[in-house]
Every structure is written in C-alpha cells, then in structure tokens.
Amino acid sequence: MSSQLDIRHQQSLRGLNTFGTDVKAALYLRVAALDDLRAVRADPFLSKQKHLVLGGGSNLLLTRDVDGLVLHMSNTGIAVTGEDEHYVYVTAQAGENWHALVQWTLVHGYPGLENLSLIPGSVGAAPIQNIGAYGVELSDVFHSLKAFDFATGDVISLAKADCQFAYRESIFKQALRERTVILEVTCALPKRWRPNIRYAELAAELEAWGVSQPLPTDISEAVITIRRRKLPDPEKIGNAGSFFKNPVVSRDEHARLLAAYPQLISYPQADGTVKLAAGWLIDQCGWKGKSLGRAAVHDRQALVLVNLGGASGAQLLELATLIQCNVRERFGVSLEPEPVIL
Ligand code: EPU
To answer: Which of 15, 106, 175, 183 has the highest local Cβ count within 10 Å?
Structure first.
C-alpha cells in the first residue's frame, strides 16, 4: 500500500453522514488534492477496492459497514475563474460546503445561487443529484466541472450538456457512477440578475416581509427562514432532506388521482407529465410525526425521515419501505428514494 497516503482502517462514519448512522469504513482516506486520487489509482491494493466517494454525507443512508475505500473529498478553494459579457464564472473545489459557496457568491456580489441557500452537503455532491430548491436547480446555474476518471487516470471536463441533468438526476448516477470523482464545479452567474420568486411559498414569505423588489440577500434570507421552519437541522437531528423524489406520473394517471383526491397537490411539467407532492401523499397516509423505534417521519415535513438518536440505517430503511408500501396501496404511486442507500 502506498506509504504517502494516510489510509485509516475501521474509521467510524457516524459523524460523516447527516443521518448519523453508526457504521464503519474498512478503509478511509481524506482526499485533499488530485494527487491523492492518482496515488490511489497507482496503488495495486487500493485500486482494486470498491470506492465510495463521500462529500458532506447529506444524501446518503448507510445501513451497514462499508467494506471498500471511502474517499472523503476535502479539497477547498473558491475563485472567480472567468467572465464574459453575460456571466461571471465562479469555480469551487469539491470539498467546499455548498452553503459556504452560496454565501461567498453573495458577499462578493455575484448573485444567482441564492435560491439554493442552506442546502446541506458539499459542492462536489451537488451535480450528482442536481440539487434543487425554491424554483432553481443546479443545472440552471451550472457551467462545467472537472472530474478524475478512475478508468483512465485522466482529468476530464464536462460541460452542462454532458452531465445529462434532470430532476435529481445526472450522468453521475448513471453511466459515470463509480467511475469518476468530481474535483471542482464552475457556475455561470448572470451579470444581469433578476429575482426568481416563482415558488409560491418564497413569494409569500417575501410578501409577508413587505419586500416587493427583493435583493439576492433577501431571497437567501427568505429561503433560509422557510427551510429552518420546515426542515430539521442535520446538526441537531439526523436526516438527509427529502427522503423520496416527488413522483412524476402521466396525465391520465394524474386525472385518475385527481378525481379520487381533489386536494391532490401536483405540478404540471413541460413534457405533459405531472409531478406529485410526495410529502402530501405521505402526510395523507398519516405518517407525519410517526416513528418506528428511533427512526421517524419529521413532524413538519412528511417527506423527511429523521434519526431521533440511535436509529440504525436498517431501521430507517424499514420505515421508508413501510411508507412506500402504504403510498402504493392507497394511491397506486411508487416512491423512489432520493438518497443513495448502501
Ligand atoms: N406537503 C404536505 N404535507 C407534508 C409535506 C408537504 O401537505 O408533510 C405539501 C405542502 O404543503 C406543499 C407540497 O406538499 O403544498 C410540497 O411541499 P414543499 O413545498 O415542502 O416541497 P416538497 O415538494 O416536499 C421539494 C424538494 C425539497 C425542496 C422543496 C422546496 C424534492 C424531493 N424535494 O420538496 O428538496 O427544498 O421542494 O423547493 O424535490 C431535498 O431534495 O432534500 C429537499 C429538501
């Protein structure tokens, strides 16, 4: 095994996943720079191990010990790396905290990320599930990224179109899964900024504050206020944000559901399909605030599962499965988990 790398054995991952489940990694490495990844690839033993790339651990449910090598990205740095007539390009290293990047852009006068305030997790994880909230997805502001390709040993650049972004989806969950490690992300922030307050709850919050022409910082503060009101703080109570994706159904399926449930909350999509509010479906089944041992459904947002302290990953998964079965029985709708489950 390479002598330069500080590989740790049987490392607890409890403090490194926001659900706080108590599992161990057989092998663990903090990755501070590209050279660490090159050294892993060059090492005959390490290169054969299964790799789990860990960012902020906020979109992950660990149900058992990880028997391969955990690569914990901790490379840092944020800088303006270019500009043209329309955009300022800001590049952040994968190990940066996402919200710290949002704050950095606002402090330096480059708005565009404010709707994505306070999303837990790291910059490197953001493209994997194309993070989104309050009317904006990463893909709206994404320009390009650099990643290490374990298959070839090269650093590759991917433009927006290469990443195959969709709702909580990207190529990194599909063809490039377990092959690449994201090193840095570049966002294109518009020089002619306009507020995006299409999300009804965000507009209502600003209106309640008497703000009719919001600044980027107003939007950020409103998003932070709403998130704090509805979502549990992972520092205090273990969770991974929304546990399920909002399911997308056909127009016919939507019509069937709406006839049976006139209160159904749904969002028509550009392609004719309809997205349903999974939180509402789960709430209707009576799960809000319910628990199974130390695993529970958050009492203010039924889409969020929480660890009340000491829940195992298996217990959280069991609760998720019960919810899926219940929603399928009642509404005939399948819920797909949002976090990676291991
Ligand atoms: N609702 C209920 N009961 C609940 C939860 C929600 O009736 O227990 C209703 C709400 O009243 C609302 C609708 O369902 O009418 C949607 O709820 P909300 O606005 O809270 O948003 P969401 O669809 O549940 C999505 C994202 C969140 C993101 C918010 C805001 C997904 C899976 N989740 O949640 O993202 O913050 O919109 O944009 O798309 C995450 O991905 O981890 C996440 C937190």
So the answer is: 183
What pLDDT was estimated at residue 3?
54
Of 128, 183, 122, 186, residue with least CA distance to 155: 183
Closest CA to 246 of 173, 333, 142, 163: 333
- Residue 332 falls in which region: left (phi positive, over 0), alpha (psi -120 to 50) or beta: left
pLDDT (tens digit per residue) in 155-166: 999 999 999 999
> Which residue's CA is the closest to the ligand 1 atom numbered 9?
280
DSSP assignment letter at 122: B
Would you tell me how many other CB atoms lie within 10 Å of the CB of residue 74?
Answer: 19
Question: How close is the Cα of 287 to the center of ligand 1, in Å?
Answer: 15
Who's near 109: CB < 8 A, 6+ residues apart? none
Q: Catalytic residue positions?
A: 168, 242, 338
CA angle 162, 278, 336 (to 5 degrees): 50
Question: Is 245's C-beta closer than 6 angstroms to any atom of ligand 1?
Answer: yes
Any atom of ligand 1 within 6 Å of the Cβ of 117 = no
Check pocket membership of 139 for ligand 1, CB cut-off 6 A: no
Q: What is the pLDDT of residue 178?
A: 87
Distance CA(139)–CA(295), nearest Å, equals 33
Nearest to 240 by CA among 303, 282, 284: 303
Nearest-atom number in ligand 1 for the CA of 201 is 19
* pLDDT tens for each residue of 260-298: 999 999 999 999 999 999 999 999 999 999 999 999 999
pTM of the model: 0.96
Nearest to 195 by CA among 110, 111, 130: 111
Distance 254 CA to ligand 1 centre (A): 18
**What is the per-residue burial (b if ≥16 Cβ within 10 Å, else e) of 193-224?**
eebbbebeebbebbeeeebeebebebbbbbbe
